[in-house]
Amino acid sequence: MATQLKIDFVSDVSCPWCIIGLQALEQALDNIGDELDVKIHFQPFELNPQMETGGQELFEHLAGKYGTTAEQSQQNKEMIRARGEDVGFTFRMDRWTRIYNTFDTHRLLHWAGTEGHQSELKHKLFEMHFTDGENPGDHDVLVRAAEFVGLDGTKARDILSSNSYAEDVRNAQQFYHSQGIHAVPAVVVNDKHLIQGGQPPEIFERALRQIAAE
Asked: Three-state DSSP class for 49?
């Protein structure tokens, strides 16, 4: 009988290491196969909750927030591109040029979870942002993503035009902050085991097997 595990994947779609971590986690689960019965729940985390609607130029943002030089930013982007390639995700660095606010993104993802399409929408939004260079907080982009994964576009736009699920998203973010999570991706297994960062598939696989064995 498969061991049941609950995974809360705390992340932001503006975080490149989050899609690297997600792809690696899913590869690890594929490697483990039917030994585990895993349910993944995507939880919200805003890297830049104060970001203006139109976003900010990427290098300018990194320099202001972390003191990163242009050379360091280019080196980091190449490392991210290579790590993405390792886990089957395509980063188009010529198109990923801005950082955006993602609060509405998280509201739509919360709704998608109630409709059973959260994982598909999460993946599509990562692709639209990091591969296609689109703004993951733009309502037109979000509606297109929702429709692509089989959700009702009219309902999606109604949600985005309202304040729906705002309290749910804020409460979830506050909860994970209170649990000491201040960087993403953060993978919380069975509400007590934390795997931090965009780890390689073998690290996730080893950790999940150890947790399941307990």
From this structure: coil
CA–CA separation, 21 vs 207, rounded Å? 14
How far, in Å, CA of 206 to CA of 214, rounded? 13
Q: What is the DSSP string of 136-176?
A: TT-HHHHHHHHHHTT--HHHHHHHHHTTTTHHHHHHHHHHH
C-alpha 152, offset from chain centre: 22
CATH number at residue 162: 3.40.30.10
pLDDT tens sequence across 178-208: 999 999 999 999 999 999 999 999 999 999 9
Return the structure tokens found at 157: 């736009």
| pTM tops 0.85 | yes
> Among candidates 70, 60, 71, which has minimal Cα distance to 98?
60
Contacts of 14 (CB under 8 A, 6+ apart): 47, 48, 99, 100, 102, 129, 136
Q: Which domain holds residue 126?
A: 3-213
- Can you tell me the distance from the alpha carbon of 54 to that of 185, in angstroms, rounded to the nearest whole number? 24
User: How many residues are recorded in the chain?
Assistant: 214
In the block, tokens 């994970």 appear at 176
Phi, then psi, of 86 in degrees rounded to 5: -60, -35
- Domain tally, the chain: 1
Report, in this order, helix, strand and coil percent for the chain, each rounded to 5.
Answer: 55, 15, 30
The model's confidence at residue 53, banded by pLDDT at 50, 70 and 90, is confident
